[in-house]
Design a protein that fits this description.
The protein is an alpha/beta fold. The chain is built from 9 helices and 13 strands. It has helices at residues 41-48, 71-74, 91-98, 107-116, 131-144, 161-174, 212-218, 259-268, 270-276; strands spanning 2-9, 18-25, 29-34, 56-61, 64-65, 77-80, 149-153, 180-184, 197-202, 205-211, 219-223, 233-239, 242-248. Helix 4 runs antiparallel to helix 5 (131-144) and helix 5 runs parallel beside helix 6 (161-174). It starts with a strand and ends in a 7-residue tail after the last helix.
């Protein structure tokens, strides 16, 4: 389990990026970490990975302090950044050099994941590949490491539509009940239907911290009808088929979570959104 307590962080002491963050992330869940650009999504992932140090508070993973970067922890956590590493190694050589640091790395998984991404020649030099193909190589490697904790920053950037579908498929295949996956993104629709919990950062702290079921219990996602009370609507968006809305779910209606609409509702009706969710810190 990842546990964050009273976390403050700033690149300059008098300019905090995150303040008073309290959060727990449990096994068996894929977390979507959302927020506007520059709000601290990537920073939070780097703090979890122990690559940045809190000004105050703590980040612990299975009771190990993240910033100490103990070997036992490093073997079980992988951070895939938004920018791919620069290397002139072949895919095969990169794998051979780096897989040894991850005891649960699977050569078979790596091969299968590459095949799903239509990459068959592992003798290719990585620096000769297109950005999208490089991204697919490193996604395949990250998943094949089979670490308990997987942090991904904007993993779908640079992927075409079929590759995004393959990414979602592979993530579901790689996910197990003992893993925690955290995906930071501003491409909310790319992660539709694979997230178990949503965290939204805003103004240095948490705007939302809820599971899918908690969200759809309190909010309804659908098309506007004549019966809808305008006071209950948090967000509306005109489409060819009609007006999509997010409104308070006062009658316990069933609906499917739309991550992009949720994000827009959170920032369009922030005060009403905050009052709707009494955030639990243990998800």
């Amino acid at each position: 389990m990842i546990e964050i307590k009273n976390l403050d962080f700033g690149y300059k002491k008098n300019r905090l990026v995150l303040t008073g963050i309290n959060l727990q992330m449990r096994e068996g869940r894929i977390y979507g970490l959302l927020g506007k650009n520059g709000v601290g999504k990537s920073t939070l992932e780097y703090l979890i990975a122990g690559l940045q140090f809190p000004n105050n508070g703590s980040v612990t993973i299975d009771e190990m302090v993240a910033q100490k970067r103990e070997v036992k922890l490093l073997q079980n956590i992988f951070l895939l950044g938004e920018e791919v590493p620069e290397t002139n190694l072949t895919i095969e050589t990169f794998k051979n050099l780096n897989a040894k640091f991850y005891p649960n790395f699977s050569d078979e998984d790596f091969k299968n994941f590459l095949t799903e991404f239509e990459i068959t020649d592992i003798k290719q030099k990585i620096d000769k590949l297109s950005f999208g193909t490089k991204k697919k190589v490193f996604i395949a490697f990250a998943l094949a490491c089979n670490t308990k904790y997987l942090l991904m920053d904007e993993p779908t950037n640079g992927l075409d539509i079929p590759s995004k579908a393959s990414f979602r498929k592979l993530l579901r295949l790689a996910m197990t009940d003992d893993k925690v996956v955290i995906i930071s993104t501003h491409q909310a629709r790319d992660l539709q239907n694979i997230l178990d919990s949503i965290i939204i950062l805003d103004d240095k702290n948490l705007l939302l911290n809820a599971t899918d079921s908690e969200i759809t219990e309190k909010l309804f996602f659908g098309m506007m009808t004549d019966d809808d009370n305008k006071e209950d609507i948090l967000y509306s968006e005109s489409t060819v088929a009609g007006t999509q809305i997010v409104r308070l779910n006062k009658n316990n209606e069933q609906s499917n979570l739309d991550v992009e609409l949720l994000f827009n509702a959170a920032f369009t009706s922030k005060d009403k959104f905050k009052s709707t969710f009494n955030n639990s810190l243990v998800l």
